[in-house]
Specification:
five-stranded antiparallel sheet, binds coenzyme A, Ribosomal Protein L22, Chain A, globular, alpha+beta, 6 helices, 2 domains
């Protein structure tokens, strides 16, 4: 199945999600690629990574852009030729992009128990409202927190940001689909609104700077 979902979040913000079921060849056949992108693709070893990368170009095309409009800064952060912001994510058989006039970040993560082992590395104050006894909810909430921190990191893209020490995600419930978060870094506090939703056994998170 190609385009899985489109969310018209507001008049100038769109989220597009792809469920990757196509082969590498099928995807390659459908996308326009500039030489720089083709070279990057040639260097990728994993078939899943290649398909994720190409499916992002499919999403770009769905949104009315092509790979020719997509560029990367020296840190790997993507930007568009026009004034809109873009953020990109891919994980296993899903990929997603967010395009907006606002500063935005996006992340999609598979929900898995493995996150329990690394929680200490990216969670700090959030432990106050998490309940490890409710295992399924705990894993899902950790995945939201991880995704929120990745999405905010993608927005700010500054060297030295620690998920654990510098980004805080406010208490939230899985039913609400929305919370607040803040980045405390370099004597500055930046606030974000974070949205999350489940897609099959994945968690999609996107953040907008307030
Ligand atoms: C760069 C990073 C944000 C990518 O996230 P990821 O979950 O590994 O992978 P995703 O698929 O969600 O995102 C990859 C996309 O992010 C984008 N990206 C890469 N570097 C980026 C940056 N510095 N800023 C913003 N976006 C970036 C790219 O578009 C990339 O996909 P593409 O190159 O195919 O276009 C992540 O690897 C990272 O460095 N995180 C911060 C490090 C950290 O503190 N980690 C954990 C601490 S416990």
């Amino acid at each position: 199945m190609p385009l899985h979902q489109t969310i018209q979040f507001n008049p100038t913000t769109q989220i597009l999600i792809w469920k990757i079921t196509e082969s590498f060849e099928e995807l390659l056949d459908k996308v326009v690629l500039k030489e720089k992108t083709q070279l990057r693709l040639n260097g990728m070893k994993s078939d899943l990574h290649k398909r994720g990368f190409l499916s992002v170009r499919m999403l770009m095309q769905e949104a009315g852009f092509t790979d020719l409009d997509l560029h990367y800064d020296q840190f790997g952060k993507p930007y568009l030729s026009c004034h809109n912001h873009i953020s990109i994510t891919h994980s296993h058989n899903f990929s997603a992009i967010i395009i907006s006039e606002e500063t935005v970040g996006i992340d999609i993560e598979l929900q898995r128990e493995k996150i329990l082992r690394i929680a200490d590395k990216f969670v700090d104050k959030e432990f106050d409202y998490l309940n490890p006894d409710l295992l399924e909810e705990y894993i899902k909430k950790l995945t939201v927190i991880w995704g929120a921190k990745e999405a905010i990191f993608k927005i700010r893209n500054e060297k030295g940001i620690s998920f654990k020490d510098h980004i805080r995600v406010n208490p939230f419930s899985l039913e609400e689909s929305k919370t607040l978060a803040s980045l405390h870094f370099d004597d500055l506090i930046k606030d974000f609104v974070v949205y999350y939703e489940e897609i099959e056994n994945f968690t999609l998170v996107y953040a907008l700077e307030k």
